[in-house]
């Protein structure tokens, strides 16, 4: 295949916007193939002329055109976007995984900024910010009314400067402020540890340029220390995605050669593609030393495997989870994933501007589209031993305005009623607990991979054939959890 489709994100000073999209970068803009709608263009020209002649103050031509393009593109779906000169530069810089800022991935929701996930070890992470926190104010400026680009610019700055963020945490129904010092973010996308004799944990927080090589190095180290590894947990929780070739390579590490990992389909011929575990579908010019997977021990193909996911797992991480689930290679455990199943293509409009346009959907090997649906775990887990009381309030792709695949008939009336009741109960609990949390410092959740990580402990129980505490209120999964075998 003569091209590489990538999943990347727009990065502004350590602020990533939106769940990471599956992206291919085209070097030239495609010529227009449809006839121009003359009547509508005449109307556009009339509005343009009225603004120039009648608006209360003069408006720059460049701003009018830029805003018109931005509105046209952003009105399509949550992930299509127009890049002006500054944002296009930031986008290009952002694919390296190294930038200056506070270290959060964000998207826009009802005029506010929602945190998709903080980058592990970043200033935002150390300040205790969490997935689904809403940013309502940046320094003294309310976020409501700002564009996403404007909000990002206000959070940018030089290293060692400070920005004050006002946060609304829906899970606790409270508002608080945090003062964060900006710094250069060097993301470490792979972490690993032997958590018990014979059992290891490896975490991917993003799919970046170095992810595959770092994954291989960590796995070689694990097998050096534990040559008779009995089980492995692949942790993709809060992994918003990244490079698609990296996702295909990680899938190929565990799967046989020449099996399908993901397919894409769209209107353009080049959007119709099949990606397999064959090296030609994940090899990149980044891999100067040849196929990095050749360094992996053969035992990784058969080691019992559990994959942990949650609502922060999106795009490329969903590709991996879906491929391993469809090929019965792993047991997927955790929470339903985000449901980011669309492909964006970035096309320059000139030397300094461009657009990110949704051009395809991707499908798991069995042909499932996860767009606005996500990956359903084989074993649904609560976040803590006490349950997940606020799970109904969490946002996914299906909750975003103008998301693709918006099928009103997707939920039956009974399903919709259950969902609404769950939201009402969660909101009632928030109201009852609000007084206990007035203006308290943010509580940090247990660190992934720590002994207090409840979901990791359940994954280890699954690998060892011990009882698993599946999600409360899901009697079928709770009864079946211990009976689900881990793929050999």
From TrEMBL:
One of its GO terms (cellular component) is outer membrane-bounded periplasmic space. Keywords: Hydrolase, Protease, Serine protease. GO terms for biological process: proteolysis; signal transduction. SMART domains: PDZ, TSPc. Residues 404-455 are annotated as: Disordered. GO terms for molecular function: endopeptidase activity; serine-type peptidase activity. InterPro entries: ClpP/crotonase-like_dom_sf (IPR029045), CtpA/B_N (IPR055210), PDZ (IPR001478), PDZ_6 (IPR041489), PDZ_sf (IPR036034), Peptidase_S41A (IPR004447), Tail-specific_protease (IPR005151). It comes from the Bacteria. Residues 88-156 form the PDZ domain. Residues 416-442 have a biased composition (Basic and acidic residues). SUPFAM superfamilies: ClpP/crotonase (SSF52096), PDZ domain-like (SSF50156). The keyword Nucleus does not apply. Belongs to the peptidase S41A family. PANTHER family: CARBOXY-TERMINAL PROCESSING PROTEASE CTPA (PTHR32060:SF30), TAIL-SPECIFIC PROTEASE (PTHR32060). This is Peptidase S41. It comes from Lampropedia cohaerens. The lineage of its organism: Bacteria, Pseudomonadati, Pseudomonadota, Betaproteobacteria, Burkholderiales.
